[in-house]
Amino acid sequence: MKNFRNLLFKEIKDMLTAQLIISLLLMMAIFYFIGGITKKEAEKAAGKQKISILDQDSSEFSQQLLAGLQTMNFQVEKINAADQAAAVDIARAGDTNLLVVIPQGFGESVAKFETKEIQTYTFMRNFSIMGTRTSGILKGVISAINGYLSDDFLKKKIPEFNPQNVKNPIKSKDFIIIKSRMAEGSAAMIAGFVASQSIIIPVILMMILIYSSQMVISAIAMEKQNKTLETLLTVPISRATIVSAKMLAAGLAGLLSAAIYMVGFRSYMGGVMGGIANAPGVSQVVQKLGLALDAKALVVLGVSLFFAILCALALATILGVLAEDFRSAQSLIMPMIFLIMIPYFISMFTDLKSLPLPVKIFLLAIPFSHPFLATQNIFLENYGAVFFGILYMALFFTVMVVIAARIFSTDRVLTMKLRWRKKKVVL
Question: Which CATH architecture fits 47-171?
Fold first, then answer.
């Protein structure tokens, strides 16, 4: 027992390096940072949208139009300029991303019920996802102007009717159903919320799996290169004890990674939920549909991640034995990357149920597919699929441990090598 404890402490010390701790803390900081940014951007989108206006008409109707825009959640900034070119220069130097020019004679044309063009200038100050929000603001401005003009027209023509009843005689009351849960709301809104979760979670999860695998492969390769492993195998300690210590240490490192991941993920979810709470009714719809992960869901997700890390570490242990030295260990991470990247991309861009059966079986045979799909299955209350994934990963980990134990029980652990270079033929 003493030998096992000493070996375990040695393996934990080798795995829980300063680099690993710093990487995990940085990952948690990334979660917190992205959650904060998401919350701020959602607050901006829900707040007043700033636009610049050059009113060349200066008619009573154009003044009414500007007042109407202000009541429609737009912050109107009037520009005093001699012409459009000067207005563009002023708006470009400012912080607004949209300039609307109301031409001369606009009010007169509207009074005659004639079509009149307005000019819009969109300033693309960056090409980020948040930066392209200007196109949505532009559509909102055009829609608000058209709505105001049509309402004014209908009020004059049919004063006894409500313009909205005339323009939209049919109204829909939208409901979203997820399993047994139902809530009133927009499907596009919920799809956007789920997409915000589906983008960041696989990215961070992929980083954890790749880094954990590389850590173990490099550690075993260094032991072989420095003859530490050879010395360890000569001491009077059973090979099963050595393998058990390595796997338990790997499990504790995986548990720490999973715990830090879940703490960071909770901070991220708090930022996202805090951001969407500003949109009318969004937070209530998310809660009713069960899309807010509670303590139970977080525990299940953490367990799934923990077993995925265990599988990665066990497979990396076997790959590490094949490494001749530390340099060759870097190339052995490639099989792990392929096994992680395949389910990563497929889980992001397609639905597993829509795939052919052979492809589906192939994906489910990869243990890393299950944590990528866990969040969506939890949202859909498919806990059976999540628990099946955990059970399969536990079985996969057990098989890998047995294989590793057999390798360590013989001298092949020192002689197994994977050479990429061809032997030179001497004539």
Answer: 3-Layer(aba) Sandwich (3.40)
